[in-house]
Amino acid sequence: MTPADLKDAVRAAVIAVVNNGDLAVAVPEDVVVERPKVKDHGDYATNIALVLAKPAGKNPREVAQLVAARLEQAEGIDSVEIAGPGFLNIRLSGDALGQVARQVLASGAAYGTNDRAAGQNINLEFVSANPTGPIHIGGVRWAAMGDALARLLQASGAKVSREYYFNDHGAQIDRFARSLLAAAQGQPAPEDGYGGAYIAEIAQRVTEQVPDVLSQQDPQEVFRERGVALMFEEIKASLHDFGVDFDVYFHENALHESGAVERAIERLRGLGHMYEQDGALWLRTTEFGDDKDRVVIKSDGDPAYISGDLAYYLDKRERGFDRVVIMLGADHTGYVGRMMAMCAAFGDTPGVNLEILIGQLVNLLRDGEPLKMSKRAGTVITLEDLVEAIGVDAARYALVRSSADSQLDIDLDLWARKTSDNPVFYVQYAATRAASVLRNAADLGLTVDDDADLTLLTHPRENDLLLALAEFPSVVATAAELREPHRVARYLEEKVAKSAQRFWDDCQVLPKGDEPVADTTAPRLLLWKATRTVLENGLGLLGVTAPERM
RNA sequence: GCGCUCGUAGCUCAGUGGAUAGAGCAACCGCCUUCUAAGCGGUCGGUCGCAGGUUCGAGUCCUGCCGGGCGCGCCA
Fold first, then answer.
1. For A332, phi and psi rounded to 5 degrees?
2. Does the CB of A408 sit below 7 A from strand B?
3. How many Å apart are A291 CA and B2 C1'?
4. Domain locations along chain A
5. String of DSSP letters for A287-308
6. ipTM attached to this prediction
7. Rounded CA–C1' distance between A545 and B16, in angstroms
8. Residue-wise pLDDT tens digits, A67-86
């Protein structure tokens, strides 16, 4: 009996009461079944009676009694109590709960997947850091969270394309090229240019590739082209080492070279949303809620930055994506209005066809002090720095375990620690304990028996753990739907790992010394295997490994 | 000034309108001759920034105010 099964049972009970003529209401499509906070309130609770009371014109406790009487008859349900204003507190029969472990094993690596987003074709763009330098800490949050979200959406049945928008067009690239040239000539960085050791390094590599670069006719062009390519490879490589690979690396330049920008502008012109003023071409975004209209082609004839966004959005839609999701840093909050207006100008629905997720900034702390970053001083903290300090698993976990809405402080000392203070180690330790029990069992010649008698799992710790495992699919679905991967991390930590550690502490599994094999050994082994499966699957969704031993 | 966002325990953070607001850390007290003590149990700790409103019910939704962050260019 999973929560989903229980929902069906509750709904069936309501239908029965309605068909019986005792209740005159429309049966809701979805009913809420949740784990009560207080243990005395049973395994699950539903507020269905409170929801139906008003439309039914009865008081909630009356409705509760009608539904409870039916629900109590359902298979797998031990008891239903009416509590408080009209909650139904439900207790499952021991066997129904134990079945969860068997279901986990039957699904294996697929346990937790769901079809809530089936049929959606999603384009997920994230990181998209400029190719003018290494990926710094701001982009890393999205690398971890975007990749986790992609995995979650896929686990919910969506088709997902991970995409990286590579801004290799425009003035910033010129500044980058000038900076490389200056470095190669042994001159200081230009006033508006980029500094730091990586500039010198890239300049050096370009010089190695083209030894006579400085005597060529247009050396800056050589530095631009080769420098961008080298930076691009470096960014791709460090993301790959971080466990993040994209399906498409889209070059902004392509939009300008292929005529896609012009086509997008023509489309909008045809829809009547473009106008000329002061020698520039404008998009009337105010018509769609933006606070000012936006210049698309500047009066000097050059395309403004937004022109690329127009063409890029249209391109994504034409490639067949019905949902375009873009993850941006807090320094891009000002974009949202114009992007949504643009989406509407194309005749699409903002919030559905286009979603923009904004993530707040990340601070790194060492010895309780924030690490200050300065591009000028070259004290930029990069993805590699973070990985070097705490490792890929800890970095990814730290970055996804908090809501993107809140600014995040990452204490490097804490996350580098190999103790239980460090949340990722806490979860991984639970996973290794599960692995170790299974390994030790195998050494004793005990295999996991799918037919183990699960009614023997009656200990409160076993009960808690089973309830935790049963929640996994709905946690995955919710996290995907709300675009909140942190829900998975919190679930693994606070529900699964916690329950598993307690289970370990109170419920011996394997015989010690000359002890005979206990009746509980087989069902407990099965429960451990199910636990290991959920931890593996859950950590996998976050891009974090589940080690066999530590 | 306008817009977005955040404000929950000493600290870092959970809590998609439900019951007595949770977890980890920190502090203090316990539990290892036996499957990993890298763990477990317990104590302490809160006017959910403030004030109104909506609701049977508000940390959650609405309004105003206070405080922090970010953004408001024919830059990209």
1. -110, 15
2. yes
3. 9
4. 3-92, 98-114+419-542, 121-164+243-362, 171-241
5. GGT-SS-EEEE-TTSPBPHHHH
6. 0.94
7. 28
8. 999 999 999 999 999 988 88
